[in-house]
Amino acid sequence: MATMNRRTWLAMAGMAPIASTAQAQMPGAKPEWPNLSARETIRRRHFPDVILRTHENRSVRLYEDCIKDRFVMINFMYMNCIDGTCPVTTYNLSQVQQILKERVGRDIFMYSMTLDPEHDTPDLLNRYAKSYGVGPGWLFLRAEPRDTEMIRRKLGFYDRDPAVDAKKSNHVAMVRYGDEPRQLWSTTSAMIAPRTVAQVILSAADLPGPARRGWKRVAR
User: Fold this and answer.
1) How far apart are CA 200 and CA 6, in angstroms?
2) For the chain, which domains are there?
3) Contacts of 144 (CB under 8 A, 6+ apart)
């Protein structure tokens, strides 16, 4: 994926509703402005409700089925990764899932979206997920090529330099995580120690600490 500043945050949390141009009014009438909540504004700007296929070959919608009312972790990946970043990322996230245990699929939901939908079919994604021991609560997703590009950009996984952004070898192992109901979003690297990623997620999700037991046993 394209290079990104790891300190950057997805500017969602404090976004005010967007005021659109006033509709045509009769002379003397007051202009009407759409009354959108901050949450709805964020949804419209960043979460297009496109249809995806899971690695289990089920049809889901990005917002309604995967993100709405949930705490989520989202990353993009290639099965055929040029520089080997994606296998390391997927392995590290599999360790994070082991650390978080039953919270994944209950309190936290994980999504890995392929950047190569022409090649990465649901069947191939299913084999890929099984090879990493992926458990319930973590879905590998495939969108249509045009939708994949739209989602990638909507979530901020791109480089502002088009030449850099066009190179498939230029991608970093970042995870977008957030609490959709609370409108809190940020990023972390998936290349750091899995126990550190899990700690970041638990803190952001405002979850108690019992799941932290066993970090030394399963984390790198």
Assistant:
1) 14
2) 38-218 (3.40.30.10)
3) 50, 117
CA–CA dist 36, 41 (Å, integer): 6
Strands 51-54, 59-61: pairing kind? antiparallel
Alpha-carbon distance of 126 to 88, in angstroms, equals 18
**How far, in Å, CA of 9 to CA of 5, rounded?**
9
pLDDT in tens, the chain (220 residues): 433 333 333 333 333 222 232 333 445 555 444 678 888 888 999 999 999 999 999 999 999 999 999 999 999 999 988 888 899 999 999 999 999 999 999 999 999 999 999 999 999 999 999 999 999 999 999 999 999 999 998 998 876 777 666 666 556 689 999 999 999 999 999 999 999 999 999 999 886 544 333 333 333 2
CA 38/CA 86 separation, integer angstroms: 34
Residue 102 gets which letter from DSSP? G
Token pair of 185, please?
A: 């979003």
- How many Å apart are CA 110 and CA 101, to the nearest integer? 12
Look up the pTM and report it. 0.78
Instruction: List the beta strands (DSSP E) in the chain.
Output: 51-54, 59-61, 71-77, 108-114, 138-142, 174-179, 184-189
